[in-house]
């Protein structure tokens, strides 16, 4: 790939200025919210802003993108203006991602939403992110059931990255709890608790 022209890099860097924090080096949540507004999406509720950050490889620190990542990301995506970025929106639908790409994106979502050096996410945030990211990727009833469990019935306060990834595997692999779920398998305790809760709830319903 040929080296981009200097004026292209400068143009993208100037574009970043509109979203940079006071230190002029990173765009954090306020800047990303403004970026979302400029390209026509709600950065708090539209999963495409997360896909955009993933494609730009905003991985240096959680919940922000730095100038270098933004410039390199825009060059990689072939955009040097907000108008061109708007044209990317249809391609930012996570439904277009292959399974291996989605798994990588799904892990990125967890890391991007961490707070500072914290290594886990509040379970209520995890529920919100699952609802946002998995909406068209897994069975709707299963997703609703898992989210309801996390929001209303789990005693766990925080979710680790491993638990986050295991929930995706669980929703993809276990289609029937009684038939497919191996309680002696390597699933984390929180998924065992979800299964126990769900089967108990189902038994209560059937006995009514």
From TrEMBL:
Question: Which BP terms from GO are recorded?
Answer: protein neddylation
Q: Which InterPro entries match?
A: DCN-prot (IPR014764), DCN1-like_PONY (IPR042460), PONY_dom (IPR005176)
Q: Which Pfam families match?
A: Cullin_binding (PF03556)
The UniProt function text for this chain reads: Neddylation of cullins play an essential role in the regulation of SCF-type complexes activity.
> According to its record, what are the GO cellular component terms?
ubiquitin ligase complex
Lineage top rank: taxon: Eukaryota
| Ranges where the DCUN1 domain occurs | 7-199
Gene Ontology terms for molecular function: cullin family protein binding; ubiquitin conjugating enzyme binding; ubiquitin-like protein binding
Its protein name is Defective in cullin neddylation protein
Q: Where is the signal peptide?
A: none
């Amino acid at each position: 790939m040929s080296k981009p022209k200097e004026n292209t890099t400068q143009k993208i860097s100037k574009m970043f200025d509109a979203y940079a924090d006071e230190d002029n080096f990173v765009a954090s949540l306020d800047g990303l919210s403004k970026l979302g507004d400029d390209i026509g999406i709600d950065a708090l509720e539209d999963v495409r802003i997360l896909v955009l950050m993933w494609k730009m490889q905003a991985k240096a620190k959680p919940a922000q993108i730095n100038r270098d990542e933004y410039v390199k990301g825009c060059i990689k995506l072939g955009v040097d203006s907000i108008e061109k970025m708007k044209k990317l929106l249809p391609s930012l639908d996570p439904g277009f991602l292959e399974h291996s790409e989605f798994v990588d994106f799904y892990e990125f979502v967890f890391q991007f939403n961490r707070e500072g050096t914290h290594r886990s996410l509040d379970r209520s945030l995890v529920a919100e992110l699952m609802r946002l990211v998995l909406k068209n990727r897994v069975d709707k009833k299963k997703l609703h059931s898992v989210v309801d469990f996390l929001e209303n019935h789990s005693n766990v306060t925080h979710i680790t990255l491993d638990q986050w990834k295991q929930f995706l595997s669980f929703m993809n692999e276990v289609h029937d709890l009684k038939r497919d779920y191996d309680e002696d398998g390597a699933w984390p305790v929180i998924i065992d608790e979800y299964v126990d809760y769900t089967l108990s709830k189902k038994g209560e319903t059937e006995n009514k």
